[in-house]
Inverse folding.
């Protein structure tokens, strides 16, 4: 239609060669993706198998006695034999961890909301939150156990101190990260403070909070375990850390390994469940949860 | 279709008188700016970037107080009276399209159910009624901008303020949205104050162009584009369009000399 217009030409496209080039390129990319998917699961598994095998050989070939380094099969047997005992301990540790995490969420989010509502409040309290965070828990714990009679409460406080800071700082950051145009829009429509918090700040802060929660989950477990080492007393209601200590005194090295294995597995489980939780909440809209195309 | 009366018969809606704004006592963004917007107008503010266009809009929206001068509204003026479209779509990524358009109603205490007819209507006007359950990330840049426009007009505001809304879009999408905006305006007869730094866009869209000087900004000349609506692509290629563009362009150059 424009053939008579100056400067306009319709070049005939050279379709076939470009299509072939695309195909080869596409195929390569597809193969790479598949390889990556397989590798993601197989490589760590291979490392695990090799490590266990190497560990086993090390013990067998050097005839290392089991009270120095038990072989993997012995650890596994101990895990099965002491299962009920270990499970009881695990229950205690897990209980303290989860309870501390819950209190950390309430305290962290509550403080973060207070901070964004009142600058004065933030200025007066934030430095102390930092002090609490940077002081190693292992040095605070003995003091706590002097003043708090109930052991469980003491453990809870320790785990809470470690866990709450990432939630507080991440949530504060999130609540302050609202889009400035959206903020203007809320003002134009006459939104109240509460409406702004509920409909703008909290949704904005959600991904930040969830990031903090994932870190806090692991830290709560660490806090609970460390505090139990410090608390040290045995008896009814002792967690995994005490089991490790006690087994150490009695030179039951396989049991130490079994308990250690359980702690590690618990940490992984907490991380995976929190990640899943985060993914479920964000999958509809947040970049971090979107499938890469 | 609502009928907008001819330009000289429209009642005054908003007047900006001797407006001045100085930031932090040093950056003088505006000085002695005058502008009148009548009900049913499509007015463009045209000026080089940094001349204070957004600042005027923010003051009209009530987001900022003028240093000198005043902004006067005829009749009753409340928090539902203004709709705003920014350069970015400014949607809430966590909310569906429908819930995004619900925002002004929600903040006024209206439930989704009772606001739904208005939301539907607004989405229909921008051609997105099928996308009410989509999330912003699933939409193209142009579609997001349409949602933003739907949100601005859903409350039936007295004036819609638009701050370079299409500047970040590609030219094809921009032309389409220019066209659709005019169509929409002729349907509902809304009043639009439109900020742009594009001569072509201002000529195609507005019935009045206020050309601003460089900082400190003020309106130096007003150009009336007499071409009747509806305007379509034929107008874009017409000689009268070219003539308006030339006049506007010259006037813009003049206004920049003025400030220097
Ligand atoms: N909040 C602010 N504080 C200080 N200076 C500002 C602020 N907002 C805008 N300015 C200055 O005022 C001038 C006009 O800005 P703006 O209205 O955004 O221009 P435009 O929208 O025409 O590009 C610019 O020089 C800008 O740097
Ligand atoms: Mg601007």
């Amino acid at each position: 239609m424009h053939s008579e217009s100056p400067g306009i030409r319709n070049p005939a496209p050279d379709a076939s060669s470009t299509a072939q080039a695309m195909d080869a390129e596409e195929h390569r990319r597809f193969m790479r993706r598949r390889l990556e998917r397989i590798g993601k699961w197989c490589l760590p598994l291979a490392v695990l198998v090799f490590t266990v095998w190497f560990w086993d050989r090390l013990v067998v070939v050097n005839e290392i006695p089991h009270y120095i380094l038990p072989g993997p099969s012995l650890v596994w047997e101990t895990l099965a034999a002491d299962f009920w005992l270990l499970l009881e301990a695990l229950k205690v540790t897990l209980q303290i961890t989860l309870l501390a995490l819950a209190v950390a969420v309430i305290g962290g989010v509550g403080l973060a909301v207070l901070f964004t509502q009142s600058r004065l409040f933030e200025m007066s309290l934030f430095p102390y939150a930092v002090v609490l965070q940077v002081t190693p828990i292992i040095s605070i714990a003995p003091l706590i156990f002097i003043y708090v009679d109930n052991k469980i409460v003491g453990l809870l406080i320790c785990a809470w101190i470690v866990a709450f800071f990432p939630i507080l700082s991440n949530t504060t950051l999130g609540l302050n990260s609202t889009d400035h145009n959206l903020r203007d829009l809320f003002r134009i429509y006459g939104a109240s403070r509460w409406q702004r918090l509920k409909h703008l700040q909290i949704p904005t802060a959600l991904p930040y909070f969830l990031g903090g929660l994932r870190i806090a989950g692991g830290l709560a477990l660490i806090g609970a375990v460390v505090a139990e080492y410090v608390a040290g007393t045995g008896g009814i209601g002792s967690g995994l850390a005490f089991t490790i200590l006690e087994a150490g005194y009695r030179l039951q090295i396989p049991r130490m390994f079994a308990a250690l294995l359980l702690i590690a597995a618990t940490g992984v489980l907490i991380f995976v469940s929190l990640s899943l939780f985060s993914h479920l909440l964000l999958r509809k809209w947040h970049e971090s949860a979107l499938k890469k195309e | 279709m609502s009928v907008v009366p001819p330009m000289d018969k429209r009642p005054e809606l908003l007047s900006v008188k001797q407006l001045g704004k100085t930031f932090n006592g040093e950056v003088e963004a505006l000085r002695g700016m005058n502008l009148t917007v009548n009900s049913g107008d499509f007015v463009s503010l045209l000026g080089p970037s940094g001349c204070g266009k957004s600042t005027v809009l923010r003051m009209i929206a009530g987001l900022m107080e003028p240093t000198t001068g005043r902004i006067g509204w005829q009749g009753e003026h409340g928090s539902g009276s203004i709709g705003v479209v920014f350069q970015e779509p400014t949607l809430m990524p966590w909310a569906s399209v429908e819930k995004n358009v619900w925002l002004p109603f929600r903040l006024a205490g209206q439930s989704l159910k009772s606001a739904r007819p208005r939301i539907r209507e607004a989405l229909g006007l921008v051609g997105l009624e099928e996308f009410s359950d989509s999330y912003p990330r699933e939409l193209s840049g142009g579609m997001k901008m349409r949602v933003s426009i739907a949100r601005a007009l859903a409350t039936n505001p007295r004036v819609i303020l638009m701050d370079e809304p299409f500047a970040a879009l590609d030219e094809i999408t921009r032309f389409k949205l220019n066209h659709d905006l005019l169509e929409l305006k002729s349907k509902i007869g809304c009043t639009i104050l439109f900020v742009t730094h594009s001569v072509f866009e201002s000529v195609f869209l507005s019935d009045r162009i206020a050309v601003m000087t460089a900082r400190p900004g003020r309106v130096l000349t007003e150009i009336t584009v007499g071409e009747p609506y509806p305007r379509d692509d034929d107008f874009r290629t017409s000689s009268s369009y070219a003539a308006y563009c030339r006049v506007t362009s010259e006037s813009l150059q003049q206004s920049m000399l003025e400030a220097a």
